[in-house]
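Exercise 7 asks you to align residues with tokens for two separate proteins.
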Amino acid sequence: MHVRKTILTVCAGAILFGGGYALYRYASGSSDHAPANELPATATEPGVVRYPRGSPQLQFIATQGVVLLPEPLLEPLNGRVAYDENYTSRVAAPISGRVIKIEVQPGDKVKAGQPLAWLDAPEYAAAVADVQKNDNDVRLKTRAYQRAKEMVDAEVLARKDYEAAETDLKQAQAELHRAQLKLRNLNSGSQTARDDGRFAVRAPISGVIADRQVNPGGEVRPDAQNPLFVITDPTRVWVMIDLPERYLGKVAVGQIVSVEVDAYKGIDLNGRIASIGQVLDAATRRVQVRSVVENQRQLLKPEMFARVTPLSEERQKRARIPNSALVSEGLYSFVFVEKEPGVFEKRKLELGLQGRDESYVKSGLSEGEKIVASGALLLQSELASRH
């Protein structure tokens, strides 16, 4: 009886131990499985990563389409947007005065001859009075000359007096002409002169007010350092390039350039090189190159910094990709190409020109394919974890 109780006790203990062990294995086994929201990539083909639909890893992967562009001759150069001086005028006051009214604001369109500001200018009033005085003097001298001519014809006046009257008339006419020229220069763009001393500063060209450096009540002078207004055509700008000496042989007048600015990344504006400087800066060993860019959408603003890439019309078009898409293994470069949603194929490339931010691909990609622009390292680590 005692032996039977002992056997039952051992059997009961074994059952309890086995159940506890099974429960432990089940609990530990369940902890080895990934949570439902962390779906692993499936490995079915070499060099291919597949993520199930809804996988959270896809949130860290961004793709972009492959676009073919002319391969540049050299890496992007630093440039600066400037006014096109052929379509820009800096307006200054030709005389001293006090501003009593301003007619325009920055951004306004103006036409040639339109008043920009009105000045209370004593010098202008004096010029108007000078014209009137000399005009009256000419009339007086003209009548005196006509009387002298009649009297000399009637032989009642000495010829020397007649000649003196003629000389006085010519001098008066010369003084009137001088005064009229002065007033005309001051009154450029206007056909009439005001006799109230109010002088209009007028637009010499048509365009847009790009800058204003004058306020109501301010005093202006002809020798002021800054212009009162800057008028320009915003659809035309220059892009100035400081070209390193070693690249002089790769650019020429008339060559196409691509211009890009940080404000509009991915948008390339084309222009042409208009001139190449004749002298190098002794300190920087660079020469200034001026390119003309049509700015119809007015994206480029003067004093913007730009990246300028000289292009060649004869060079082959190649795929341009961001350097963030590249994965390096030894001497070779790879990208991941999206074959279908959630499926990425690792592909070897042959690169051409490599810049600081972007590179050009000689072979390995076709136009219209999608590459992983951000998240390539995640896919690379996924492939590495298989080995």
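Second protein for Exercise 7:
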Amino acid sequence: MRLFDLHCDTLYEALARGCDFDNPDFHITPRKSSFISPYIQCFAICVPEEITGERATMMFKSAYEKLLEQCSKFDIRIIKSFSDIKDVTENGQRGAVFTVENASVLAGKLENVYLFRDFSVKLATLTWNGRNELGDGAMVSHSNGLTPFGIKVIKKLEEYRITIDVSHTSDRLFYDIIKNSSRPVVASHSDSRIITNVKRNLTDEQFEIIKKRKGIVGLNLHRDFLNNDIEKASKYDILRHAEHFLSLGGEDVLAVGADFDGCDLPADIRGIDSMGEIYELFLKNNYSETLVKKIFFENAYDFCENFDK
């Protein structure tokens, strides 16, 4: 099978633990994913909210060095442009896209956005769940949305063709981003709020806006986002979220953003090695193979043509 996954926290875990990607405790390892070809994985550096200022910037730089080291060690190609994605796909290889989860790594300095450009960052959330110099995340009560600094950062990100990721935004921040941006946005790892009522999931209106912007939405496998009763969460809930998004016309929007190594999985999902089973689950539930291929790979691939435009 082919897979393009918009989000995982494996890079952060490897950096934090000082270990390689082949740690058997990880949801994603080179060995566990060996059945996937081609395989393009977005590796996020998620900066904890207690790490701020220059410490956050240094952590970002260390993460990039770690990614380079691990890609070299495990024969993974660093994605710097759409042409890289095209080559990886045509040759059945593995590719790594560097992404940022929590732009506090900028340390409040607009000039630091050049680091995103120079380190080939392709997707960036402005916040995690709390408040930083750019705006308010999903769990902030009485959110104020974007700050003046956040507005400047958006303009610079768009200038550098770095896609804004609206997963982890508060509702107010989401609409402020839409108001102050013009390019497509993504929700790399968010499910439907109609199906599971948590703030990290998308409302129907938000999904419609992303669709209108020609963005994409990655299905998240975190059990808390899949089912209102987390003890009952299962891989079958993924179908419920997919079916709802598809009912909104999401055939060209829906993708995978599993959140491996950054989430608590349902009991019937082990990690990346369960993706084949999930793929087959879609097929067994009357999804056409054409549609399943779009969700698992092609929609993300097609979206990434924006990287170079």
